[in-house]
Amino acid sequence: MRERVRAHLNDIAVTGIGLVTPAGRTAECTWDGLLDGVPTASRDVRLAGLPVDFSCRVAGFEGPARLGLAAAREAVADASWPAGGWDGTRVAVVLGTGCGPGGGTARGVSAAEVSTELGALGPSFVTSGGCASGATAIGVARDLLRAGTCDVAVAGGCDGVPGRTAAAGLGRAGSLSSRTFDPTGASRPFDAERDGFVLGEGAGVLVMERLADARARRARVRAVLCGYGASAEARCAPGAAGVDPQGRGVERAVRAAFADAGLTPEDVDHVNAHGSGGALDDLAEARALRRVFRGTPPPVTAVKSVLGHAGGGAAAVEAACTVLTLQHQAIPPTANLDRLDPEIELDVVVKSPRRRPVRAALSTSFGLGGHSAALLFRTA
Predict the structure, then answer these.
(1) pLDDT digits (tens, 9 = 90+) for 164-194
(2) Is 328 part of the annotated catalytic residue set?
(3) Is residue 72 within a helix (H) or strand (E), and if so which, with residue range?
(4) Mean pLDDT of 85-99
(5) What are 112-120's contacts with CB under 8 Å, separation 24+?
(6) What percent of the chain lies above the pLDDT cut of 70?
(7) Is 226 a catalytic residue?
(8) Cα–Cα distance for residue pair 134/127, rounded to 1 Å
(9) 274 in active site
(10) Which residue in 150, 158, 274, 321 is the catalytic one?
């Protein structure tokens, strides 16, 4: 009880959400696309001639910085912060991203453009932790708020489909699904016939404030970020992006998030899984979750089945989707799951949304280099 009281005092409110994904250019459109469960992968003219020539792109956007800026604009509007309505010196911008088109240049520009657009004059920087980058950015922003370094944090992640050279390298390494005869069926998290992930892009941004501050300004609180945990494998095993086959690093991150939140596994009603569709990654994640939840975890979904893998932006996109699940009390289905891998042993939601009470939900992310991050959200 003492731990829960301590954690409650440090809870952070999510007051705004912005999403730009292949399923839609707003949070509402993305959510509708996830509930429909229709995969967005299609042939990609910019990858024509490569062994894997399909991806999940966002129509009308060029580069991760543009995606991040659009998501940030939506999130701030959603949080009901009028233009000039805040003290810019107390607003931080923390974005996570991978390399994407433009490499390091894109990483730096993404945070700078958002800060400039919003008049945010507080800390502004980018985190890069592989596919966990967006979740790491949200966790770091949470720490800034808890420390009193800022009063508002605009945090999340963005990334674009890699260029041809990087895409070809991922294909040669066997990381991508080679289901070229059926792009829409290629992203198959937890399925017995999964064979890799599908390149994607997108951005997810949250506006975060201390819960007491959000209530004082009578803001709508979409959810509460109550726990964050992170870990590293300190290894790079071929074929598993550095993730231990038993998922020990993932497990450490999840347990750290529970400790931070003062919650127990019994308090959690849903897991938004990393679920990339990688043969080893999905199995490692399932093993970690089964140990943490001491048997079968609560209902699981994997939105990459619809959206593809948005690289360094994926974790933030999935965090935003987790918040929407809490808001709507509905768990989106996992697409393309025709036959669950018998070794997975998870309750994966398929075919149609599962509507049930969701008091708290876990979002897990991990990837290249062995970086793992976990976020716990609860209803307000």
Answers:
(1) 999 999 999 899 999 999 999 999 999 999 9
(2) no
(3) helix 64-78
(4) 91
(5) 113/65, 113/68, 113/69, 114/68, 114/69, 114/72, 114/154, 117/69, 117/72, 117/73, 118/72, 118/76, 118/88, 118/91, 118/93, 118/154, 119/84, 119/88, 119/91, 120/88, 120/91, 120/92, 120/93, 120/154
(6) 92
(7) no
(8) 8
(9) yes
(10) 274
